[in-house]
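Weekly puzzle thread! Below is a chain. First person to post its structure in token form gets bragging rights.
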Amino acid sequence: MPRTGSFCADGVLTNGDEDSCILLPEWAIRCGPRKTIYFDPQQVSAAVVTCGGLCPGLNDVVQNIVYTLTDYGVPEDNILGIRYGLRGFYERDAKPITLTRKYVDGIHLKGGTMLGTSRGGANVKEIVRRIDLWGLNMVFVVGGNGGNAAANAISEECEAQGVCCSVVGVPKSIDNDILIIDKCFGFETAVQEAQRALLAAKVEAGSARNGLGVVKLMGRQSGFIAMQAAMASGVADVCLIPEIPFRMDKLCEHVESIFEKQGHCVVCVAEGAGQDLLTAGGTGGTDASGNPILADIGIFMRNEFKKHFKVGDAHGEADIKYIDPSYMIRSVPTTSNDRIYCKVLGQGAVHGAFAGFTDVTVGLVNTHYVYLPIPTIIQAARKVNPKGRRWNRLITAIRQPDMA
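Winning reply:
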């Protein structure tokens, strides 16, 4: 299946709407059931694990992995749910649970993950030892860049130790920052929920003289949620993302011009934006999953706006309302489109395992469901391309100038 896109100056193929310039495969293997399967369903023992941060759709994926395994004929007693992330393979206080069709019935109607989750710190050798000890021949890892990197390490360790196990990933990221994949499951739901905060900010700002609504959304290194929510809501006047630098003085000048035109302003900012403006930016280290620990750009901007727009000042006073929905946008059940997407991904993961694939992940690429080698998608984080069409559609629509 050809991969369309644009060429970087050095001839390396990449998608024109993403800030990535690395070697990508020219084709991918189509996802789906195969005529020939390499496991006897009656002899299959499988495990499902969710790891990393929460994301809408985790329960949907778990449910459909279980449903598809039983559809193949895998005995329900042979399907394990690993508790609280990868550590659940070996920690004594987190024993695995048996996943039956009855047990997972209805879990798609709830947010979060019924298995529990955790970040980082996995002992790969111990995990593979348990895989061998328990006789598992299929392991499904639902996770982000860190989770898929762990799946890759588990697959390689299984091969090194001669353990026959198919390790299949399902890519998850609330920030939509998984490379190559068109979109991650749960992203659409998060954007939908994020719009509620922007609409609330619009009401607050529009109800006051020089009303200024500031909304901080998730997005450590990639600004996809902020960009899409700003575009979809149609109420944001300014959108700030990690990929685009800005200066606070120029931002304040732009907000002033918006006040003059319409009397109020809504600013949407991703949590990773403007870290260079903060004294703590870039010095916070990383969390257990290797993600950068960020300084709070939302609080910083609110305080800077208060300093700039104050009583008696030439700029005039501003009525500032700061909204931080934070984890609320990721803890909700999925929208209908995401629910269907999760269903296909869960089914595709099981089809891939029965087809004998390992160290692969399943996802939507160029509108087609495919299997991709995990090392390919964990090379780098996917980011918004400052020169791409999506970003330029947004800044054209809201008339946002260069504020660098």
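Puzzle host: Confirmed. Bonus trivia for everyone else. Confidence is low (pLDDT under 50) at residues 1-15.
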